[in-house]
Write a structure and sequence with these properties.
The chain is mainly alpha-helical. It is about 50% helix and about 0% strand. It starts with about 30 loop residues before the first helix and ends with a helix. The relative contact order is 0.07.
């Protein structure tokens, strides 16, 4: 690593995108991920679709109980 960097020719906001959407990384326990991957494969769906469906159902249950 250099002791000093020259940013005099740098362009502020060059990579900024106002419409960018931040995707939250989610880290699952290994056993849970293995289980969900197997379920997704057996149903023929993407892992993210399966997890989103499960979370939506859980939210519906929580909102119903309120």
């Amino acid at each position: 690593m250099k002791a000093e960097y020259d940013f005099s020719k740098g362009e502020r906001g060059k990579f900024y995108n106002a419409d960018a959407v931040f995707k939250l990384p989610v880290y699952l326990d290994e056993s849970i991920q293995s289980y969900l991957v197997a379920k997704a494969e057996s149903k023929g769906v993407e892992l993210s679709d399966l997890v989103n469906d499960l979370l939506k159902k859980e939210i519906e249950i929580i909102e119903t109980v309120k």
